Prior knowledge:
Blueprint: E1 2-3, E2 9-10, E3 23-28, E4 31-35, H1 37-57, H2 64-93, E5 98-104, E6 107-112, H3 119-135, E7 140-141, E8 148-152, E9 156-160, H4 161-172, H5 174-191, H6 194-218, H7 220-223, H8 228-257, H9 263-266, E10 270-274, H10 279-289, E11 293-297, E12 303-307, H11 309-313, E13 329-331, E14 337-339, H12 344-353, E15 358-362, E16 368-373, H13 374-383
Parallel strand pairs: 4-5, 10-11, 14-15
Antiparallel strand pairs: 1-2, 3-4, 5-6, 7-8, 8-9, 11-12, 12-13, 15-16
Helix pairs in contact: 1-2, 2-3, 3-5, 4-8, 5-6, 6-8
Amino acid sequence: MSESPGGRPTLSRRTGREGSVGLRLGRVAGVPLLVSPTWFLVAGLITVSFAPTVEARIPGLGSLRYAVTAAFALLLYGSVLLHELSHALVARRLGLQVRAITLHFLGGFTQLEPHRPSPRRDFLVAFAGPVVSWRWAGWRCSPPSRSTRRCRSTCWVPWPSPTSSWVRSTCSRRCPSTGGHMLRAAVWRVSGDDFAGSVVASVAGVVLAALLVVSPWLASPWLGPPDVFQALIAVLVASFLWNGARQSLKVAQLRRRLPRLVVRSLARRAIPVAASLPLAEAVRRAHAAGARALVVVDGDGKPTGLVSEQAVADIAEQQRPWVDVASVSRGLASGLVLRADLEGEPLVLAMQESPATEYLVVEPTGEIYGVLVTADVDAALATA
């Protein structure tokens, strides 16, 4: 699902591939790997800002110092990739489909196909990331002085304080993000309420975001007064967590409304029409029957297509007698046929699998019940 600019939850503009945006580099363990353009910005910043430190530690490298710092940037995001790949592999092991792994300027995320969540499965998928990070790509910092930091991931690399703040933020952002998913699943498991888990995780995210803003000053007795760069990084990461917490709460509120979505109450009455029937006559019959939708049927009365409401509206009334129904209809793919007994989250998942503007609704026995228009579902979500 997506949100309109005004914050209203909608289904009508779904592409079925939200979040999968970036440069595709290939596949890792069968999972598509995407890199956001923002990743190149941070990788370039790390490469340039580390260069003086490398030159001071290893004099005479010349331009090769940039190769060393670029390698470090790749190793840094390699640990992020391992973290996300662990999420993806555990998700697949639990029967979920993984769309892609995306690396971006503050880390990365793993996008799954729409599925019915459960506290146990959600916890296991989230927990896989920290396990791998702590075991294989875990890192620890031991400050020998206020001006130098040492951080171990796959190798030991020294760097000055401002840059270490950026890198630590990039590395550690995965912990609060993953921790939020784990906390939500744990509360959900104990309370039996998915919404309660989302509320607790969202509140924790907001509190953590606030702590991150003041963290440079709280750590000043040990690390020295923060500079402008450190403060900006803290605010940047905090805003990321803040927005994530708010979005998580919005999604939870939306999911709480889902049980009120019932196909039988939302579907429009439809009449069957032949593909060769003039559009003007088809519209007249629909109005006479009090119907708001048209279903194309063959000679045996079997549905073969749906008439697009927008396509009908785009044709002037004076032209409709010379346009047949087939011209404004589309064929029925399997995903465009929904059972009349669907409701709640199963209904939304079915619509996410095959995004469209209209769906044919049939009884469990196969008879035509009506047509479900996505805009009507949007309206129901907004007013539920």
